[in-house]
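Hi support team,

I submitted a single chain yesterday and got back a structure, but I'm not sure I'm reading the C-alpha cell output correctly. Could someone confirm the output below corresponds to the sequence I sent? I've pasted both exactly as they appear in my results page.

Thanks,
R.
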Amino acid sequence: MSQSPYKEVEVTGDKSSDVVWHNASVSLEDRSKKNGHKPAVLWFTGLSGSGKSTVANAVDRMLYELNCKTYVLDGDNVRHGLNGDLSFSDADRVENIRRIGEVSKLFVDAGLIVTTAFISPFQQDRDMVRQQLEPGQFIEVFIDTPIEVCEQRDPKGLYKKARSGEIKNFTGIDSTYEAPNEAEIQVLTADKGIEACAMQVIEYLITNNYISKD
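Hi R., thanks for writing in. Yes, this is the structure output for that exact sequence:
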C-alpha cells in the first residue's frame, strides 16, 4: 500500500493546528458597496407555527424587489441536508444553531442579507450566534405569537402529535422556549397580516440604514 503524500497533522481539540484563516482579496466593504446595502443576519425566532418562515420569505421577496442580495435559510430545508444528521434533542438543537450561525457568518462575509427561520429556543444559543458577528450584523426578529394561536394554526399537525405523545421534545409542549430578552424587532403576527409583518422588518432596515428605499 502506498503511503499518503499528505503529512499527519497535530490536532488540538477538534481543529488542526495547521488550519490558518486566509483573508479574501475582495473585502466585505467592497462587496457591500457593490451590493448597495449593508450585510446582516435577520434571525427569526419563535414557536412552531408562529409564522417565522412565512414572514421571512415575505421579507426576502420585498428585499429582492429592492434589488438587495439575499438568501433564506429555513429550518426544515437545512435539516434536509447540512443538518440531516441531527435530532431534536437539546444537545442537537444547540449544534443545529451553531452550524447555522457559521453558515450565516459566511453569507454576511459575502455581503448578503441572510434571513434565518429557526425556532432556536435557547437564548444562550442565539447570543452565541450574535457574538460570532460584528456589532450590528445580527438582527433578532421575535415572531411573537401565542402558543394557543400556533396550536390553532398547526400547519404540519405537529402540536397534535406532540399532545398525543408521538413527538418528544417539542418546543412549547415538553421542551422550553426562551423568548428573546431584547430582540431588535418584535412582530405580533396574531394582530396583523403577513405583508404588514414583513413591512415592519423592512422599515427597521430602512430606518437603521441597512438598505435604501430606492
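A quick pointer for reading it: Residues 1-13 have pLDDT under 50 and may be disordered. Let us know if anything else looks off.

Best,
Support desk
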